[in-house]
């Protein structure tokens, strides 16, 4: 997220690609850390675990929170211009990658408790510049 | 000398494209391995450092391959390799072929040994760092 915020700050706009309906899964790092511990302690060898709280956050919603906190316009970037605007991140930012952690939760009894991506962004941690 | 550098770099990529990272005879012991951008930027030094850097990078992907599409000899010491990363993210299943970004690697060679490898996820950044244009491909 820091990279996305940095691009918005540098470009003066908070962008999303196309209509921004593509989704990213997300998890708070503290929930991920707890799952990591549970995985080490309880998961059968070879298990694939999904540390996912938000199954799919539309990228446009992410751009809107960033735009609001940086006080910059929220704009759609065309696929053709995405590489120029977002650099290496363009392809990842265009991906629609919803994912579920239902099996992981069932296997380990893991339940995320920390804020979701939009709520966490809205708390403002990502927008404080190093002094 | 110039063609020797190109041949050396081609031979390295032939191995990497076959998922063979076992040989480091081509590398200077003090080699610098850098990921200039992307999800895990960083600089590693020495043969052990390069191995750690590659492991960090490749651990995210299944069937990772840096397919070289073009080799450009920039001067007596530098070869720019235009590459297309291929692979699939182990957990999300994200396919690098669908990511669409074009990559580039810069290889520096001195006295027949590679002294620096720089991986760029974004080829445009490589061109910018090197003062190149996509059209000219040379300084």
Give a quick set of tags describing it.
heterodimer, A: 131 residues, alpha+beta, Rossmann fold, two-stranded parallel ribbon, 7 helices, B: 139 residues, Nuclear Transport Factor 2, Chain: A, 6-stranded mixed β-sheet, 4 helices, 6 strands, 29% helix, globular
Structure description:
The complex is a heterodimer of chains A (131) and B (139). By secondary structure, chain A is an alpha+beta fold. Chain A has one domain: NAD(P)-binding Rossmann-like Domain (Rossmann fold, 3-Layer(aba) Sandwich). Chain A contains seven helices and four strands. Chain A has helices at 2-11, 29-42, 59-70, 79-86, 90-94, 102-108, 117-122, and strands spanning 14-17, 23-26, 54-58, 74-77. In chain A, the strands form two sheets. Chain A has a two-stranded parallel sheet with strand order 1-4. In chain B, strand 3 and strand 4 (78-89) form a beta hairpin. The longest helix of chain B has 16 residues, at 2-17. Chain B has four helices and six strands, in the order αββαββαββα. Chain B is of the alpha+beta class and 139 residues long. Chain B has helices spanning 2-17, 46-58, 96-99, 123-130, and strands at residues 27-35, 42-45, 61-73, 78-89, 103-110, 113-120. Chain B has one domain (2-125): Nuclear Transport Factor 2, Chain: A, CATH 3.10.450.50. At the A-B interface, helix 5 of A face helix 3 of B.
Q: Briefly note the CATH topology name of chain B.
A: Nuclear Transport Factor 2, Chain: A
Structural class of chain B: alpha+beta
Strand pairing plus helix content of chain A: what structural class?
alpha+beta
Helix content of chain B: 25-40%
Task: List the topology elements.
The complex is a heterodimer of chains A (131) and B (139).
Chain A: H1 2-11, E1 14-17, E2 23-26, H2 29-42, E3 54-58, H3 59-70, E4 74-77, H4 79-86, H5 90-94, H6 102-108, H7 117-122
Parallel strand pairs in A: 1-4
Antiparallel strand pairs in A: 2-3
Chain B: H1 2-17, E1 27-35, E2 42-45, H2 46-58, E3 61-73, E4 78-89, H3 96-99, E5 103-110, E6 113-120, H4 123-130
Parallel strand pairs in B: 1-6
Antiparallel strand pairs in B: 1-2, 3-4, 4-5, 5-6
């Amino acid at each position: 997220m820091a990279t996305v915020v940095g691009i918005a700050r540098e470009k003066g706009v908070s962008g999303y690609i196309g209509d921004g309906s593509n989704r990213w899964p997300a998890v708070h790092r503290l929930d991920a850390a707890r799952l990591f511990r549970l995985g080490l302690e309880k998961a059968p060898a070879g298990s694939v675990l999904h540390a996912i709280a938000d199954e799919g956050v539309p990228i446009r919603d992410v751009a809107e929170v960033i735009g609001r906190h940086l006080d910059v316009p929220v704009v759609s970037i065309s696929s053709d211009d995405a590489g120029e605007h977002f650099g290496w991140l363009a392809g990842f930012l265009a991906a629609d990658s919803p994912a579920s952690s239902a099996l992981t939760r069932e296997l380990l009894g893991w339940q995320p408790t920390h804020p979701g991506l939009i709520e966490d962004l809205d708390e403002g941690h990502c927008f404080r510049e190093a002094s | 000398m110039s063609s020797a550098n190109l041949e050396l770099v081609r031979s390295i990529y032939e191995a990497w494209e076959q998922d063979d990272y076992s040989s480091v005879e081509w590398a200077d012991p003090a080699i610098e391995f850098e990921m200039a951008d992307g999800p895990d930027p960083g600089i590693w030094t020495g043969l052990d450092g390069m191995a750690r850097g590659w492991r960090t990078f490749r651990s995210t992907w299944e069937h990772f391959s840096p397919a070289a599409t073009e080799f450009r000899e920039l001067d007596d010491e530098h070869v720019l390799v235009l590459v297309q990363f291929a692979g699939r993210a182990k957990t999300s299943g994200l396919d690098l072929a669908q990511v669409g970004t074009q990559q580039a690697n810069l290889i520096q060679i001195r006295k027949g040994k590679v002294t620096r490898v720089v991986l760029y996820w974004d080829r445009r950044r490589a061109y910018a760092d090197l003062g190149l244009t996509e059209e000219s491909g040379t300084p």
